[in-house]
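Exam revision sheet. Question 4 asks you to relate a sequence to its structure. Input first:
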Amino acid sequence: MLSDIEIAQQAKMLKISQVAASLGIAEDDIEHYGHYKAKLSMGLIRRLAAKKPGKLVLVTAITPTPAGEGKSTTTVGLAQGLALCGKKVIVALREPSLGPCMGIKGGAAGGGYSQVVPMEDINLHFTGDFHAITSAHMLLSAMLDNHMQQGNALGIDPRRVVWKRVVDMNDRALRNIVIGLGGKAHGVPRQDGFDITVASEVMAILCLAKDLPDLKERLARIIVAYDYAGKPVTAGQLKAQGAMAALLKDALKPNLVQTIENVPAIIHGGPFANIAHGCNSVMATQTALRLADYTITEAGFGADLGAEKFFDIKCRFAGLKPDAAVLVATVRALKMHGGVAKADLKQPNVAAVKAGLCNLDKHIENIGKFRVPLVVAINIFAQDTPEEIEAVRSHCVELGVPVALSDVFCQGGRGGTELAEAVVELADSGKADFAPIYLDEASLKEKIETIAKEIYGADGVVYSKEADKALQDFTAMGYGRLPVCMAKTQYSFSDDAGLLGRPEGFKINIKNCRLSAGAGFVVALCGDIMTMPGLPKVPAAEKIDVNDAGLISGLF
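Answer key, structure tokens:
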């Protein structure tokens, strides 16, 4: 059996100008990055803004497990299935982070015969967007420390610097560091640390900005530290926003590529849904909606994380109204939620599948709370038995929830036509009456508690002293109306990764909160969540290589 990268390397790609032409995009409106990648011009994006948008479909999933659910694969395969059904469609995805590619999670280009290509480029440096984000973030870090070194006219308290550094790699040794050592000429000594680039507020800003002026305004609002009087110090006060925007001006433009079956794909931005808002850029989604009749997008991890943030943050800011949702479920994930260990997943176990359906039920309920109709996609794996698949299918039928089989990994678009037909029926039905789950006027604590109780199923919320004070301070500063971005483990509805299925009788523990004033939300850090991942005992990087001809191997 061919690996993902071998399948991708055999794909017959169209020149990117041909992909653009299929969407009615002129040669002058794309900026080439080789033969198969391009950026869309800002002029095109501005002209498209007046067009009526097509239908928007969100792909999300049940609570993920180490076994993997294939959400990106399903997203790509669904788009290919829609194309085979004669629909004008675009898939809009996030960009992968290098850290997980070299670690354990893998990339975000799909898999099997439902991938976006060129897969190696997309999963590695792509068009350099993440490097630009890292550079802009680190420029602000350097200007902040330089300001303190050069007299500290703003009176920045080095003990209250809240702006960490970033790198797009899993590197646990950088979580907590001390900088400025070596004497007076080498900076002001202080404690610091690194986040992964996808957790950067600059990433969130790029993904939520509507244009270059909005990007610059948001960058200026970033709070980097507090002065000795306790007042916030911003990137604008450091006069950093102009240079940061200059570094980001090309990264702001969405990237155009294609799937293995030559369906157009716009890939742009890539925040993690467990530590950030987990959605591709607003500009990419808005552009796709005006270029196609159906836009298929995804949000990271399970629906309790990615979908909630898509609905409550991205849709709120961008004025998006999704027409339908796809909830991806797999037999093997349900078996894990039903108590089966990963090592035993290949053994048939209908009883465990049924025991794990409680997790699927909760996600179905949650999406319904946003008044978006959904179809459950059963993503098929080779070891699934007909009896196990039927247990999931019949359960959905009993609930009155549409359900479709998806075999897009092995069959590409042909394996996604059943799902595509169900999605078209839902998206065109007019049943969607989207609304976020909380109002702007609710307090920050009310927003946190609404998510914890309504989406996670918690009994309540416990705040540390640091978190409680932070929320009081943010409200006093005038940020009480901002939405909340919950940073939580992706492996459980709770903040304990070991509680699978549909846990009950638990509370969500908020250990601290961060203010992302530029992005426009408050981050609530739950449990032991970390914003800088580490590599596993055997990193995926050990298997990646390149031969003398420049052909990459081992990348999944």
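Marking note for examiners. The chain has a mean pLDDT of 95.
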